[in-house]
Amino acid sequence: xxxxxxxxxxxxxxxxxxxxxxxxxxxxxxxxxxxxxxxxxxxxxxxxxxxxxxxxxxxxxxxxxxxxxxxxxxxxxxxxxxxxxxxxxxxxxxxxxxxxxxxxxxxxxxxxxxxxxxxxxxxxxxxxxxxxxxxxxxxxxxxxxxxxxxxxxxxxxxxxxxxxxxxxxxxxxxxxxxxxxxxxxxxxxxxxxxxxxxxxxxxxxxxxxxxxxxxxxxxxxxxxxxxxxxxxxxxxxxxxxxxxxxxxxxxxxxxxxxxxxxxxxxxxxxxxxxxxxxx
Amino acid sequence: xxxxxxxxxxxxxxxxxxxxxxxxxxxxxxxxxxxxxxxxxxxxxxxxxxxxxxxxxxxxxxxxxxxxxxxxxxxxxxxxxxxxxxxxxxxxxxxxxxxxxxxxxx
Lengths: 279, 106
Known about the structure:
With 279 residues, chain A is of the alpha+beta class. Chain A contains 11 helices and 12 strands. In chain A, helix 8 (213-223) crosses helix 11.
């Protein structure tokens, strides 16, 4: 859906930043399912990267006295993407500070330079340049600012249009009435209430492509079964085969397809799979 | 943090709603004479940009400035967006940002 190419992952503190940016290419509701060893956590949504305008940040309610908690559209926000013009760049020994003006407002941004790659990245951007900033939203004594994880110059100006459209899209997703929101996830869950007759295999051709969506839906319904969703490590292909009694090659192709689409991901090893849908 | 002087995303049609206020738009440069640029807005109207910087003809130019009328902007900052820019997408964004989703921008 979204070209996650904005972050090229050249940063430090690898393990942590990976989980922060892992969700960059998805809608927040999906990115909450980034594999984590901590299991189900209500705080996951805070790790989703939210594209925002400065105006939205200004309007954000401070969730509590805790300096790092903000809520926008009812979602806890900590990692944000902003796109705007760099102003007032000040280079210091260990960090670079500047003001980002995205046309809706201005916000202070700070970029710590821990590694030479950080310094190099910051040398590439100057006052007046359009930049894409990914970073953590912080609040201190009522003043909000961003601690940037990456600051990159915009080279394709369509990225600016795209960013604002992405802001609107995500805002729409998050403000959509609950009933509609649930419909998305409810549909597959209804499907898995259906018991699968064991003779179903006979009705499917050997090719997953020819069998089309029916096989795909059946396989996904196994992954979306509440008991499977609850399993931290997901299930193996053998489990799916056992449930559906479908030909192995068909199921393998379907799983492979959904892995490529990002609907299913590997957990502890190459043989365990879990749905990316928010449990 | 300061949101006291936002610039409204506009095309020519929406420009008229913001006369006297800060706006930002993108035009395709048609001709440039002594700091005055005549450009085509993303919704296909001619706009006059005063105090504009020199941007090659046919390039897209982003303008931040004050709307002087429904056809003219006094530029504060100009950016050369190059020869290829998706004007249609920008036009759609202007409509959304000035109407239904105005609260996210202004």
